[in-house]
Amino acid sequence: MRKLKIFEIERLDTDSFKQAEKLPVVLVLDNIRSAHNVGSFFRTADAFRVAHIYLCGITAQPPSNEIRKTALGATESVDWSYHESTQDVVESLKQKRFIMAGIEQVDNPVMLEDYKNENNQPIALVFGNEVKGVQQSVLYQCDIVIEIPQYGTKHSLNVSVSGGIVIWEVFKQFRNVLD
């Protein structure tokens, strides 16, 4: 078990990434206040070839030194756009036949381990503010709300950690798209 050198790890360059097949998955970041969390979403989106990130409301946008520190160049590879209104983005994606999935704790969630995308339908994952979560008005627009089960004393995970967990679980269902 010899640790690989960076040059031994086969990765796409930015131009190849832009041309490569993407997952039918987009991220909607609803008022994420930490630019470091935004950068982490970019890096995770790059790792799993997420199609697009929608930055909404107060969510930080590139160029930003804080985003750059955690994204490590992923703002150059992952397609993104900024929108003032999360609700408008959600409505637009619904019209394009995306499943709208809020990631939140609600009274009637779909637990992450139970979520199945039977028809490989495009999905938009909506992540919310670190303190307030996904806006209630946005949750009302969602088709489902997915919750990550937790068994400790805390009520939530860091939003970018939640992103990594959910994106990985969704990626596993679409993995054949990239193989």
Q: Any descriptors?
A:
single chain; 179 residues; alpha/beta; 7 helices
Strand order of the largest sheet: 3-2-1-6-4-7-5
Count of alpha/pi helices: 7
Which consecutive residue ranges, at least 5 long each, have pLDDT under 50? none
What is the string of SSEs from the N terminus onward? HEHEHHEHEEEHEH
Would you count the extended β strands for me?
A: 7
Which radius of gyration do the C-alpha atoms yield?
A: 16 Å
Percent of residues in beta strands?
15-25%
Q: Which structural category do the helix and sheet elements fall into?
A: alpha/beta
Span between N and C termini? 25 Å
What's the helical proportion of residues? 25-40%
Largest sheet: 7 strands, parallel
| Mean pLDDT level | 95
Global geometry: globular
Walk me through this protein's architecture:
This protein is of the alpha/beta class and 179 residues long. Helices cover 35% and strands 20% of the residues.
Layout of secondary structure:
Blueprint lengths: L13 H6 L3 E8 L4 H13 L2 E7 L8 H7 L2 H4 L2 E4 L2 H10 L3 E5 L6 E2 L11 E6 L7 H6 L2 E4 L11 H16 L5
Parallel strand pairs: 1-2, 1-6, 2-3, 4-6, 4-7, 5-7
Short structural description:
By secondary structure, this protein is α/β, with parallel strands linked by helices. It is built from 7 helices and 7 strands.
